[in-house]
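the two lines:
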Amino acid sequence: MTRPPNLIYAVDEVPPVAILIGSAIQHVAVMAITLIFPLILAREANLSGMQTLDLVSLSMLGLGIATVCLSIRSPYIGSGYLSPAAYTAIYLGPSLFALRRGGLDLVFGMTITAGFIQLCIAPLLKRLRALLPSEIAGLVIAILGLALASLGVSYGLGIDNGQSIKPDYVIVAGVSLATMSILNIWTKGYGKMFCVLIGIMVGYVASFAVGILDFPAILAGTSAQLFRVPHLEHIGWSFDPYLLAPFVVAALAATVRVMGDISNAQRLNDADWIRPNFTSLAGAVSANGIAMIFCGLIGGFGINSYSSSIGLSGATGVTSRSVGYAIGAGFAILALIPAAAAVFAAMPLPVMGAALFFTAAFVLTSGLQMITARMLDARKNIVIGFSFGMAVVADIYHNAFTAVPFVFQPIFGNSLVLGTVCAVLLNLITRIGVRQSVSIKLTPGAINREAVEQFLSDNGARWAARRDVINRATFGVVQLLEVLGDPPKGVEVDASFDEFNLDVRVRYAGAPLLIPEKKPAPREIMASKDGERLLAGYLLRQSADRILSRQNGDAAEVTLHYDH
Amino acid sequence: MNTNALTIGHSHEGGVCVVTLSGRIDSTNANDLMSRLNALISSGEKSIVVDFGAVLYLTSAAFRALLVATDEAERNAAKFVLCSLGGHVRELFEMGGLLEVFTIHPSRAEAVARLA
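prediction for all of em together
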């Protein structure tokens, strides 16, 4: 790991107390904006003022615990990188669906279920890559963005069941949204960084001016208390298999987001970063699962890693894990201060609408960027286009889909689930015949390594394979040829590729390759050519994601597998 | 002509001998590298920096050559360091567990400054 030059405090370093506290406060401010999601839940559930305060306080505690879980470095849990948490729009649709079907108990129960789903997914991350390639992950996020925008418009314009628009809501939402947008586009530094927070504050002032801010009502009952342990009386848990599909999809989407965020955190701390460390990713997904279970138990909302905070740590150059622990302590203290919760609990609906609509723009475009990051061939066009279309159709013709058999209703009744299920199924179907194979034969006396380099390089470019994977495969084959020398019947190299796998098979006549598990000592390597061969075998084992050596009669075969 | 063939150049920066490598280092050219490094050490160079900035990759034969040169430098009381190990090359050192065996500096300037 090479420290990038722009880092001020790297992941394992502990900044001085003043910088630690300053960094933590900045993250707390950015993360607290996402309390909007549990607040939406509280509004939709018609919670009383005190219950809303309890929910916000407990949600703050959830943010702190989740940040510590995600940032901690241990063999099983945590990414080992500064990874602040945030409540996420990913769970908003499924949670509101659960709220309407079974109340808050069902929301909390299903949040715990989603946590267990993530714990099950964590050890299978590598294998699931084929199921959720980046363009499908992008599609899920884009659909989420659309759902978020729709809710933002509804809140911002004050559209109720009668479909009427409230003019005072339009004014507040307009002022708030304009502030966020102007700061985001035309300012730099803190203005840009805190555009949502400032926009929300301006929205509060505008709400007060038009008379829709009910701050005193929220504060009633808390004025006498500086500190208060939040109550858990309103919390219960239930489970409904009908909701499993939307929560599985949401857990998968949240997992994809954790993987993206932690990969980014790894890259920020290593100038030589080439590909993600899956041990760290799996630890982060497990931590997210545990944080979800905790949030469900304390009556909270779906939680995830937070791209904005990781971006903030990169912008400030402070990526120290210790900041994560300070954030945890900060939120634990805020959870005990009712006034802190009241500030958020009093948020007027049009201000929430503006923040949701603003966030939706970034969620939607980040999804679209993920979709188009790789070349879209005919197969991907059909997978993405059909699935996106079906997701939109699920919302437009919602009533028509209520006629589908009961077992399919969780799929057809939710745009996110329908779009994702379509994409995963179409992706699996259209992958048939996608694997491409090529081979080259090297005759005895002409084991030409340059030819192999050219062969892998040309085909890698034709397949649009990642350069770093082709480099590793080229090294593997050249290193192997070096060990094999000049076999009597020459060498045959087969390479087969699909989007997720590169397999190189090297066939020759001779003894099977010795692949040592133990690293040879420098003295052993220097002592003889045998030591050098041991190092070669060890390097091959380390550089490939899997290696297999076998013999059949006179012929031997080595298979090098690389994840793509 | 193979554009990835190893080229070895050397120059002096202050009292430090800087060996610049480019291309691929494998069993076809590792002996050339070992001979060149050993010759420099034998000729009395006391501070040698090997710049890997333009190396594409290296195999076990190259690692052996570097280990032998390090050993030779130690026996001649010469300082022998490596620098500018980027991306894939650094990864190979890491895979072989050889990052700790050699003295490695991030850049040529830093390596020269340390040995000067």
